[in-house]
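Async update (no meeting this week)

Hi team, since we skipped the sync, here's where things stand on the single-chain job. The sequence we agreed to prioritize is pasted below, unchanged from the tracker. I ran it this morning and attached the output directly underneath so nobody has to dig for it. Comments welcome in thread, and please keep replies under the output.
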Amino acid sequence: MFDAVRNNKRIVQIFLLLITLPFAFWGVDSYVKNAGSGGELASVGGTPVSQLDFQQAMREQQERLRTAMGENFNPAMLETVEARKAVLDNLINQRLLALDAAQRRLSVSDQQMRETIAGIPAFQENGQFSLPRYEAVLKAQGMGQPTFESRLRNDLALKQVVAAVAEGTIVSGASAERVFAVQFEERQVSEVRLGAQQYAASVKLADGAAQKFYDTNRSRFEIPAQVRVEYLVLSQEALAGQLSLSDADLRKEYDAHPERFRQGEERRVSHILIQAPKDAGEVALKAAREKIEGLLVKVKASPADFAKLAKENSQDPGSAERGGDLGFFGRGAMVKPFEEAAFGLAKEGDVSGVVQSDFGFHIIKLAGVKAEQVRPFEDVRNELAAELKKAEAGRKFAELAEGFTNMVYEQADSLKPAAEKYKLTVQTSGWFARNGKAPAPFDNEKLVAAVFSDDSLKNKRNTDAVDVGKGVLVAARVLESKPAALRPFDEVRADIEKMLVQEEAAVLAEKDGEKKLAQLVKGDAVPLDWGASRPVKRMEQGFPPEILRTIFRAPADKLPSYAGVKLPGMGYVVFRVEKITRPTAAGADDPRLQAIKKQYARLQAEQDFAAYLSALRKRHGVTVNAAMLESAKDK
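Output:
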């Protein structure tokens, strides 16, 4: 059990984070316990938020981000004033909600606690709560039962406060339909682009303009310092390539772990889906169920027509065109109700009854079964070889890394001794700059810093062996270097003049575009070469947001209407809106309308909750020590 927890520690960590509220309501009791120790960053209802409280919250937020982002996590993202303020605001909101919960005398019964804990998948085995697993999961997180249950009880109490606000949000059908019409609005548009190049001939640069630009922007024409180096690479991948394994070694590993190569039963099914989220509302659910039940009658009357009925009626865009075919899948690939129904069918051709999932209502037809099987040795031979070589190379790399590091440091005037001892090739780079885009491995900031250090540049000593990631160590030695230099004016003059002409031409294009737009808006006839008309949707992909905003800000009361926008450095574009179409939903159960209602309700709930927190701040009183928050990163 403990092995299972250790092996799946990241999954467990993610889960333990997900069961908390969006505002990370962990350990409110610890915040109160630590109040008053250290300097006060803030005060909530007369109770201080101390430095210790804040640092604990920062550590928890760092752990949440590390778990969620993995290798992409950068601790520096929490070092900004904005990030620290967000963490402090979070703490303040927790305190406010805790105060409100206490005033409302909200509590969580032992029965609620038992049901919540028993329903957490991480604490279950074979779908049932397991006390040993519960204890093992908590132990793997370094947390005792009393601490976890105290924190969970606090979270559940605070969740009651949040739910009371969120569940009070009501979105009317009329409001949702108005948003729907705007969201899916389509405009028929043609355009004229006034490119800067059209105005370039009219630009006359002032005498000395290029020289003046050169003199005031000299840093733009500097050639940075560059080096050319020789280097050695010690890598796990190269070590793995040097290894060879016999069939006997591979067969031994295969025979020792047969469970690794066992493939569970897979099933191929087709389905018909009528979308209806569980929170869609009684009317929508009833309509969807009636529709799917009507289709089930047709399927039973003519099973051979299943693919045709799926193609004509299924609301699953991914499979409807294929007659509902979902291909083969194993257990764990689908949501539980769907999986249970699919694996509950006895033989090919069998059809399920109506199955409800988080996506709506399904009819499922079994199209094929692949029995459980063990992958043969020949099929996994290469996979096994790569795996064993990687493991052996990792061990060998760890053994060699320290010696390699010591040798390039101790014999710092040459890389040859290390190359000979570790059977490595001395490689030579091209010229590259410190802040340039160098090829690997010199795209690593730490390695480049070592190459451009005084010891490396002036004394021509080997750099330290630098870990550039993914099991690779690199040591380098400078062969040649070039100091930073300024490109002569005559060398860059033509480029400067071309750039200045482009900038001036773009300004002329913008002025002419704005003038023509004003004339069009007034109703004047303006001779323009309009492009072909095309439909544009508000949610169009591939359009710059500023252009979409411009098109949909054009007046809709009188057509054609006109709008224009600058294309920075490139010119100006004028749009002519010729037709506007606003669709209506296909009934109350239209899944697009249901999605709009859900999004709209979420937005309203967020606004209501923000207003609620603002009211709590006024009621209980909140003060923040901004100066101390600025310095909190150094504590």
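Quick observations from my side:
The first strand starts at residue 40 and ends at 44.
The chain has a mean pLDDT of 85.
Reply here if anything looks off.
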